[in-house]
Structures are given as C-alpha cells and as structure tokens.
Design goal:
Blueprint lengths: L4 E5 L4 H12 L3 E6 L11 H5 L1 H4 L2 E5 L5 H11 L3 E4 L6 H6 L1 H22 L4 E7 L22 H20 L3 E6 L2 E2 L8 H13 L6 E3 L5 E2 L2 E2 H11 L8 E3 L5 E2 H11 L8 E3 L17 H7 L7 H24 L1
Parallel strand pairs: 1-2, 1-4, 2-3, 4-5, 5-6, 6-11, 7-10, 8-13
Antiparallel strand pairs: 9-12
Helix pairs in contact: 1-9, 4-6, 6-7, 8-10, 8-12, 10-12
Length: 334
C-alpha cells in the first residue's frame, strides 16, 4: 500500500509538532506549511533531529494561508490524502489588535484550503481546527456539538466562519471535511504568550531567581484544559471515519486561571500571592467567562477520551519549564 501523504498548516505550532510526530510514527509523508515570517522552533523539532529517517519524510513549504494561489498550487502538486488546517493567528488578545489578518488567516484561509481541494484534489480529507472560543458567552453548559455559537473576539468570529464554510463544502460539494471543536489544550510546547505557559515559565524562573513578578489579567476565567498530545490523536481519528462529521474534544471539567496558577506555583514550592500582580492591560475587551465541553460523542463514535488529568498536565508543564530554566541558568554561569 502506498504511503499516505498529509499536509499540515501551522506545523510549527504546538499542535502541528505533536501531530507531525504522530503521523510520522504512522509512516506518513508529512508536508508542512510554514509562514515565511515564522521561525521553526528548535524545541518543537527535537524529535526529528533524533530520528533522521523521520526527518527525511518531513517536507517544509514556505507560504501563507492568506495566499489563495499558493494554497491551490500546493494542493495541486502534493495531492494529499489528508489536510490538517491548524494554521492561524491564534492569540485572542492579538486578534483585537490585528483583526483583519486574524480573519484572513483563520477565516478566509480555511476557504482557500477548501476551494483548492474542491478544484484540484477532491479526494483529500480535510480537518478544520475549530475552537471552543466559538461558544464565547455560552448559552448552555456543558457545550456540545449542537450548542449555539456566541463568539467574543475577532479570532472566535473567524473560527465560526471557518466552521460553517467547512460544513458548507461538505454538504454542497461532498468533500470529506470535518470540524474538531477543541477546547483548551496545553503542553510544554505551548507558546509563551498563552496564560498557562506564561504561568509555568514564571514559576520556574521565580524559583531560580530569574524573575520577580508575574503580571496576569482575569484570574476568574474558567477553561476546560486538556493535554495537546492526546488531542492531536482525536484529529487523526476524525479523518479515519467512514463519514465526515463534527466533534467536541474536551475533558468535561472546568478550572479557573487562578486554579491553574495555584497548582503550578504550589507544585514549584511557591506562594503565588507573593509574586502575582493584576495588570489591566492583560484583560480582553470582551471576556469568555467559562467553557466546559461535552465530548461524549467523541467517546461514543471515535473511541477517544482524555487520559491526563488537570493536575497531571500542570505538573508536566512545570517539570518541563523547570528543566528548561535550569539549563538556561547553567548556561549563564558558564
């Protein structure tokens, strides 16, 4: 049987790196779209450095989701069996500062991918990275596949468009196109601009005397946090089904930012109240107060369910950042 080909946009991100590992382990040839301005993070490709055979099956293509001609050319040449659309400007805060680019990448970028598939590779199976942010100011708890969307940021609005255009192309053109509505998922590879990683890095730096204060925003916001490495498995499962469909991927638990903060600092042996200050600049213009997903459909149909608990996730992230900061501190002493 011929080796499967997968195309991933956003391959340099947290999810893209874990998904790449998973697909290479399953003997895929992986093609990754990298923004020209994006720096390929060395930490996220350690796995490939250690396995030259895997690296030989990884192919990077430089371009942008906002460039429809580039996307069409890429799809036409590669003819991927599967396309995972993970790329976008994904910072909620930044989406208020750069709403047009956010909507171009997260919204219109999705349309560019689907249109390229429709014209040049209609057999390609398409995964759209939808987000719990689409639920926004929630109308019911927990949120499931039938819960109405009520977005509260330009990023969330763009993701709602991406969700619906994916569903529309599935129904209108019979493309195998599925939405994974993933709730918050984190890991040691999470970007440093996200609150969870900001917290675990600060705990490590404070512990090693490299940082004095941590400035945060809304500590009361509640999220459904899972482990990114497990969530990419659900992405792959979605595209192995007989029929395309949409699935919520979540833990079914909700925890506040303050709970995450307390757990991380306590695990590091620190009293967070001595180091944390509230900065109004870190508040969003419109806040999502609470999300909690119901992934019972994913468990029933895909056989997927989360394995890592909230506290285990916090420990995984703190341990990783402790090792990272210890290495940095040792380098400075040399």
């Amino acid at each position: 049987m011929a080796t499967k080909k997968a195309l991933i946009s956003g391959i340099t991100g947290q999810d893209g790196s874990y998904l790449t590992e998973l697909l290479l382990e399953k003997n895929y040839d992986v093609f990754g779209i990298v923004r020209v301005k994006s720096k390929f993070d060395a930490e996220r490709i350690e796995y490939f450095k250690k396995t030259p055979s895997a690296l030989s099956r990884l192919h990077l293509i430089y371009g942008d989701l906002t460039d429809s001609e580039f996307i069409k050319k890429t799809i036409k040449e590669i003819q991927p069996d599967e396309f995972y659309n993970l790329g976008a400007q994904s910072s909620i805060k930044e989406s208020f500062n750069s709403p047009e680019y956010t909507c171009d990448s997260a919204g219109m970028g999705t349309l560019h991918c689907l249109e390229a598939i429709r014209i040049h590779s209609p057999r390609t199976r398409f995964y759209q990275a939808s987000s719990s942010e689409m639920f926004g100011k929630v109308t019911e708890t927990p949120q499931k596949e039938t819960t109405p969307f009520n977005p509260r940021s330009p990023y969330a609005c763009a993701k709602v468009f991406g969700y619906w255009i994916t569903k529309n192309y599935r129904e209108a053109f019979h493309i195998f196109a599925s939405n994974g509505i993933l709730f918050n998922h984190d890991s040691p590879r999470r970007g440093e601009n996200f609150v969870t990683r900001k917290i675990t890095l600060a705990a490590a730096r404070i512990k090693h005397g490299l940082q004095d204060k941590l400035y945060l925003g809304n500590l009361d916001a509640k999220r459904d946090w899972g482990y990114a490495k497990e969530y990419v498995e659900a992405m792959w499962m979605l595209l192995q089904q007989k029929e395309p469909d949409d699935f919520v991927i979540a833990t079914g638990e909700t925890h506040s930012v303050q709970e995450f903060l307390e757990s991380a600092f306590s695990y590091a042996g620190l009293d967070w109240k001595k180091y944390v200050e509230i900065d109004s600049n870190n508040f969003r213009p419109t806040e999502v107060d609470m999300v909690m997903g119901d992934a019972s459909k994913a468990k029933r149909v895909l056989g997927w369910e989360p394995k890592t608990t909230f506290k285990e996730l916090v420990k995984i992230m703190v341990d990783a950042d402790m090792r990272l900061i210890e290495a940095e501190a040792q380098d400075k002493k040399k």
